[in-house]
Amino acid sequence: MNPHLDCLEPYPFEKLRNLTASLVPPPEKSPILLSIGEPKHEAPLFIAQEIARNFGGLSSYPSTVGTAALRETICQWLTRRFQLRPGSLDINRHVLPVNGTREALFAIAQAVVRPGAGGLVLMPNPFYQIYEGAALLAGGQPWYINVTAESGMVPDFDSVPPAVWKQCELIYICSPG
């Protein structure tokens, strides 16, 4: 059993459920469910049409690395969003599309963080809880980079001390902001 399991915080939806358990909503109001984000409405017609038009492609698994066009688009978006130097991302070295982001975000920490080595896993704050859990279960230590209006709602990498960068084994740059 992973000795770091006791370090994990309850998932936000569990906290929310506990906080609202004793509340009784007014009977004339319809609840707004803020649960796990699963679809509650019919899919738009254009989605069904696209699936039908491309149904033949569902008979085989997609390539693990996705298409070059997809990876190029991802690199372009990252470059714009985080004001990276153009050409600093390579579609064959820096991008791996995944179907389940939470699973991939967790797995990468297990693959690259050296347990017990004092490594830091940098993450934006606010953060998706999987970053923290992945860091802790991999044997790393979370280190939070505050995301504020002053920083343009992106992590302020210049605020990270050099000593922290030296201990950094992984950095999550995806942010709810």
Q: Give the N-terminus to C-terminus distance in angstroms.
A: 34 Å
Report the radius of gyration as a whole number of Å: 20 Å
Order of helices and strands: HHHHEHEHE
Derived from helix and strand composition plus strand pairing, the structural class reads alpha/beta
Q: Runs with pLDDT <50, length 5+? A: none
Count of helix runs: 6
Number of strands: 3
Overview of this structure, please?
- The chain has 177 residues and is an alpha/beta fold.
- The protein is 33% helix and 9% strand.
- The protein is built from six helices and three strands.
- The protein has a three-stranded parallel sheet.
- α4 runs parallel beside α5.
- It starts with 11 loop residues before the first helix and ends in a 6-residue tail after the last strand.
List the defining traits of the structure above.
alpha/beta; three-stranded parallel beta sheet; 6 helices; 3 strands; globular
Topology:
Elements: H1 12-20, H2 45-53, H3 68-81, H4 101-112, E1 120-125, H5 129-137, E2 141-146, H6 162-167, E3 168-171
Parallel strand pairs: 1-2, 1-3
Summarize the structure.
This protein has six helices and three strands, in the order ααααβαβαβ. With 177 residues, it is of the alpha/beta class. Strand 1, helix 5 and strand 2 form a beta-alpha-beta unit.
